[in-house]
Amino acid sequence: MNKTGEYNILACSNCGSNQLKWASGGSDSYLDIIGDTNSGMYECAKCGKMGVAIEFKSEADRKKFEQTLKEKK
Ligand SMILES: [Zn+2]
User: Fold this and answer.
1) What is the pTM of this model?
2) In this predicted structure, what is the pLDDT of residue 42?
């Protein structure tokens, strides 16, 4: 849980993956973004899309979002 106690799940807006890495800042460690700032540019390790992460209250919500994206394709 992050310092605010909520909204600590971030996911790719394109595919729903949580395998994100910062597109800026010099660190390429996955998931380092969790617990840090809530906004920023990322690069998705799964689909390669660069953008702004979507926040979720829980991993279950993220998985639901990811599943929705899969069903649309
Ligand atoms: Zn993605």
Assistant:
1) 0.65
2) 81
Alpha-carbon span 14 to 3, nearest angstrom: 27
- 26 lies in which domain range? 9-72
From ligand 1's centre to the CA of 41, what distance in Å?
13
pLDDT, one tens digit per residue, over 19-66 is 988 775 544 444 454 444 445 678 899 999 988 788 898 999 999 999
Cα 4 to averaged position of ligand 1 atoms, centre (Å) = 25
* Residue 47 resides in a domain: yes
How many whole angstroms from 20 Cα to the centroid of ligand 1? 8
Q: Which amino acid would we find at residue 40? A: G
What size, in residues, is the chain? Answer: 73
Question: Is 3 domain-assigned?
Answer: no
Tokens of 36: 């840090």
Distance 16 CA to ligand 1 centre (A): 6
